[in-house]
Specification:
By secondary structure, the chain is α/β, with parallel strands linked by helices. It has two domains: 49-76 and 324-417, Alpha-Beta Complex (Aspartate Aminotransferase, domain 1); 89-322, Type I PLP-dependent aspartate aminotransferase-like (Major domain) (Aspartate Aminotransferase, domain 2), CATH 3.40.640.10. Helix content is 39%, strand content 15%. The protein contains 14 helices and 14 strands. The protein has helices spanning 17-38, 89-102, 117-130, 144-152, 167-173, 188-198, 222-229, 254-257, 286-295, 298-301, 307-322, 325-343, 363-375, 404-417; strands at 49-50, 66-69, 72-76, 134-138, 158-162, 180-183, 205-210, 235-239, 265-270, 280-284, 355-358, 378-379, 381-383, 393-397. A seven-stranded mixed β-sheet has the order 4-10-9-8-7-5-6, with helices on both faces. Strands 1-13-14-11 form a four-stranded antiparallel β-sheet, covered by helices on one side. It has a three-stranded mixed β-sheet with strand order 2-3-12. It is globular. The structure holds pyridoxal-5'-phosphate (PLP). Pyridoxal-5'-phosphate (PLP) is lined by residues 140-142, 166, 168, 210, 214, 239, 241-242, 270, 272, 280.
Length: 418
């Protein structure tokens, strides 16, 4: 018997298609001037790693101090595996055992049948590590900011982002259908000015920034941002992907680095960098995590991270927690690398972020140096990532597991070439 489907009533509270389109259009019109500012003519094109050899780089082992790239075992200063955990035997063993038991993933979202014991344990472990009541873990750190924006959009009137904020912040903010303004990079005075100029009476602002900016490894000036927000009772959200595990006495990230705790501050991170695992996460009070689950479409609408990758994340988190010496070694290595770079005549900050960046006179020079280093078995990035100048910058990531000799080797090779 053929069944005729009557037009379905939309669930109360869920916007219907027409309402959604009307809202999108209204949002687009409201955003238009801000869009113009964000994507001004001088906005650099989206970029990643420049200076690739023909055919690109192909990684043929787990990333670590020594990594096989294009068939050669190299001294590796690329990527973001700051504790070199991705190839750690315990992390690999946890992933393999979980793959055997659970397969690749749950093949349904968490509002279906997708709540595996591995997922729930990972979220407990994240909350424990960060000292929060609860946490949520999901398929990519790129979604961090989408989750935060969706959860906070009803409470705020406008969003303010650092002009070099990560791609994932720029992509996420428009989903709120609220006006978006940019302020000068790490400039709390400019933020205060933009708040004053653009907020309507009674509007609560949401400020979004990277905690640690990936290209130059600079830290957001959190206390100054909070001071600028004080008169408006605004929210500050940090994409802390490069800070979690690394910054703060317990490796809890940028807010811990500054000793800041506030119910108006939220942060999100990734398991894919310091922790050697995979997926994005937000540690927060239970009420906020429940609110995220109720407001962000990616919770009912996406398959969770692959289960073996979540098991790897649990193990990585355990190792970082039980072995704080790794953070100590990382800090020592960062000091050695930054001091060495200074001795070569390059300007560099002296913060504890394991990202070391320097520029040469021209893009051609940087391509040459990257290629010659690679010829000698040393890998650094020629980065055109967000926040980099058009010609890019040379960027070395420092790992806790690099030996002092390996860092000296990088500095020695550089001295020869520049
Ligand atoms: C600042 C920042 N946020 C988010 C991400 C995305 O994280 P994931 O790789 O877990 O998707 C990255 C990725 O490198 C990043 O640098």
């Amino acid at each position: 018997m053929s069944q005729k489907h009557a037009p379905q009533e939309i669930e109360p509270g869920m916007p219907g298609r027409r309402e959604f389109l009307a809202k999108s259009l209204a949002g687009f019109l409201a955003l238009n001037p801000a869009l113009g500012r964000l994507f001004a003519d001088d906005e650099p094109e989206l970029g990643g790693e420049g200076g690739l050899p023909p055919g690109g780089f192909v990684m043929e082992s787990a990333p670590g101090p020594e990594t096989v790239i294009n068939g050669r075992r190299c001294l590796y200063f690329g990527g973001t595996g700051y504790f070199a955990l991705h190839g750690h035997p315990e992390v690999i063993a946890a992933g393999i055992a979980t793959f055997r038991k659970y397969g690749c993933h749950s093949a349904t979202s968490r509002t279906g049948f997708g709540n595996t014991p591995v997922q729930l344990e990972l979220e407990r472990k994240i909350a424990d590590y960060f000292g929060t009541e609860d946490s949520i873990h999901f398929v990519s750190g790129y979604l961090d900011n989408l989750f935060l924006v969706q959860a906070l959009k009803a409470r705020v009137g406008a969003i303010f982002i650092d002009e070099t904020a990560h791609f994932s912040i720029r992509d996420a903010v428009y989903s709120a259908l609220k006006p978006v303004y940019t302020f000068k990079h790490r400039d709390a005075e400019d933020l205060a000015l933009k708040l004053k100029q653009n907020l309507k009476a009674g509007d609560v602002p949401l400020v979004m920034s990277d905690g640690v900016f990936p290209t130059f490894g600079l830290i957001a000036p959190v206390p100054e941002f909070l001071k600028a927000l004080e008169p408006y009772q605004g929210y500050l959200c940090l994409d802390d992907s490069h800070a979690v595990g690394v910054l703060g006495p317990n490796g809890r990230g940028t807010f811990e680095h500054f000793g800041v705790k506030s119910d108006r501050c939220f942060f999100a991170g990734t398991m894919s960098k310091a922790f050697g695992g995979h997926g994005g996460f937000i540690p927060a009070p239970k009420a906020f995590i429940d609110h995220i689950k109720a407001t962000c479409g990616a919770y009912p609408g996406a398959t969770p991270s692959p289960t073996p990758a979540m098991a790897a994340s649990i193990k990585g988190l355990e190792i970082v927690k039980r072995d704080p010496q790794r953070r100590e070694r990382l800090r020592r290595n960062v000091v050695q690398a930054k001091n060495g770079l200074r001795k070569l005549g390059f300007e560099t900050n002296d913060n504890p972020v394991p990202i070391v960046t320097w520029a040469l006179k021209s893009a051609e020079d940087m391509k040459r140096v990257q290629a010659e280093l690679f010829d000698r078995g040393v890998v650094v990035a020629l980065s055109k990532y967000v926040g980099a100048p058009a010609g890019g910058v040379l960027r070395a990531s420092i790992f806790s597991e690099h030996t002092p000799e390996q860092i000296d080797r990088l500095l020695g090779e550089l001295k020869r070439l520049v």
